[in-house]
Design goal:
It is built from nine helices and twelve strands. By secondary structure, the chain is α+β, with helices and mostly antiparallel strands. It has two domains: about 5-170, Ribosomal Protein S5, domain 2 (2-Layer Sandwich), CATH 3.30.230.10; about 175-320, Alpha-Beta Plaits (2-Layer Sandwich). The strands form two sheets. Strands 1, 2, 3, 4, 5, 6, 7 and 12 form an eight-stranded mixed β-sheet that branches. Strands 9-10-8-11 form a four-stranded antiparallel β-sheet. A hairpin with a 6-residue loop joins strand 3 and strand 4. Helix 3 (about 125-140) runs antiparallel to helix 4. The longest helix has 25 residues, at about 225-250. The termini are close together. Belongs to the GHMP kinase family. GalK subfamily. Pfam families: GalKase_gal_bdg, GHMP_kinases_C, GHMP_kinases_N. One of its GO terms (molecular function) is ATP binding.
Amino acid sequence: MNRPVHVRVPGRVNLIGDHTDYTGGLVLPIAIDRWTDVRGTRADRVRLTSSDAVDPVDFALDGSDGSPIAGWGRYVAAVLAGIGPAHGIEGTVTTTIPVGAGLSSSAALELAVALAIGFDGSAVELAKLAQRAEHRATDVPTGIMDQLCIASARSGHAMLIDCHTLDIVHVPVPDSVEIVVRFVKNRTLEGSGYAERVRECAEAEVRIGPLRSAGRADVERITDERLRRRARHVVSENQRVRDFAAAQAAGDLQRAGLLMIESHVSLRDDYEVSIPEVDAAVEQLCATPGVHGARMTGGGFGGCVVALCDPGTEVEGWRVRPVAGAHRVRDV
């Protein structure tokens, strides 16, 4: 044991394509320059402390006979249960990803722990492992966007992900744009309407088939007004992702910004996952000279907004850049 380990995993912000991944739709996120780091040495257990939590975690390699499984320890135990590691780690967890902001802090922790205890599969396998851990830890039926983005990201690029096939197209982010993230309100998907939206989409698919391949005419066949609005968001959002990727490739920031605004309106009105504070932040950003567009980002019910801006635009928020995905900094 006693071999040093250092793993670094970024957070993510989704530029467009929310509440589409769990129906196998399209998303376009970036990994951002905010990281979770796990540093330590190999050990025969998993003993970790966190700069953001009072209680440490201490588990056997099978996730048993250690800390009560609560708080951040839930995610560590869930990863252990899914991997059957050959070795543990004794060390620390630090993060610059704001917790509860909708920037994938939990997914980053899951991937970081998996890599720190020796996971050696592909990026897709790592993402699937972390998604299962998220489900086990929270009982929230999230899609795979967060985990696959931060496992597979490429520096300087957004990722057009097909969440059905898991195919990825890396789309360059031009230097002529600044991506700004503004935190609005802390949130958690546990206890929110997230699981209900997943169920509503499943009900809509019983009526018209997979939403990932449905068209607007299919949506209009749904007689239940609430389910029709949910399906309309998913179908229109998938098309907006395609259009946004094309606009970005063409350097048409005005078109890309308008698509972000359309996305927010759809999430607010048809999907009902925004909140007044987020709506106000989007409205204020969109009224600012130099901002091409803004929208809520992530699962909703609070969290952050993201804006597409000209460089140097005077808006409050974090300037983020697209970075490479999860990796071992040192494991020698």
